[in-house]
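1st attempt posting a full record on here, be nice pls
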Amino acid sequence: MQVVGDWRELPDALKGAAVAVGAFDGVHRGHQAVIAGAREAAERLGAPLGVVSFDPHPRRWFQPEAAPFRLMTPDQMAEALAPLGVDILYLLPFDAEMAGMTDAAFAERVLADGLGVRHAAVGFDFTFGKGRSGSPEALRAYGERLGFTVSVVDRLDDADGLKLSSSAVREALKAGDMTRAAAILGRPFAIRGTVIHGDKRGRTIGVPTANIEMGDYMRPAYGVYATRSRLPDGRVVDGVASLGVRPMYALETPLLEVWLFDFDEDLYGQTLDTQLIGWLRGEETFDGLDALKTQIAADAVAARAVLKRS
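the predicted structure (as tokens):
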């Protein structure tokens, strides 16, 4: 899969795709249905399958002071799209020019002229253009004029009639409902980050942790999780993690601290992908290190049990 970082002056080889258009934060099952719509058109037209998304996320552009909310990094998005058969990811810069485009300008300048799309698939609630003035119906009208077809994917609900959406994933994560979050995503929620040096308190009690800053990831429920971490060499290691601000030590910013079971290697500076498999308990304060050590041992037992079942 090729990742393309602009829509201007592209060679012909990168034009003419059938594309799915949207933010696709999480690449959840609802997003996958939109991509399937584009895939159907790509197969019918004999065209490459593309995905059009944006970096930064439009919300971050319009609300720079908003709380962290992302479900994945651009690299994670690309990795999630590859197994879906996507040939080209157009990760377009969301800048002042893009933010100021009308819906008509976006359809003409970006989709038609820039990318030369032959088909665009969107979700039923897709909006685009300055002031979010564009709708799926408007895109279809623009496509008729500009030479590309449009398909609109209906709302996709779960068995309980709840919409499969990025907002639903965030709600589940805030509630510590990792099972529901994974059901919507089609995989466990994972945090990718570089292991940094911490205060090394964990080593003093026999629990060395890999510390990872949260960045712009949304904050799931603070507390303790059963985890699986993928190392750069592909190994996957079970563990237990604390996510939050550690009430006993009052961290200024949230941190993910992962204790990898039966593992004793230097990971500083390396990038880990840590799946939050199950939420075990909320953050607590303890009356001294002995009480903390006892609880950590209990957490490890609970985490191993959750991971064995998953």
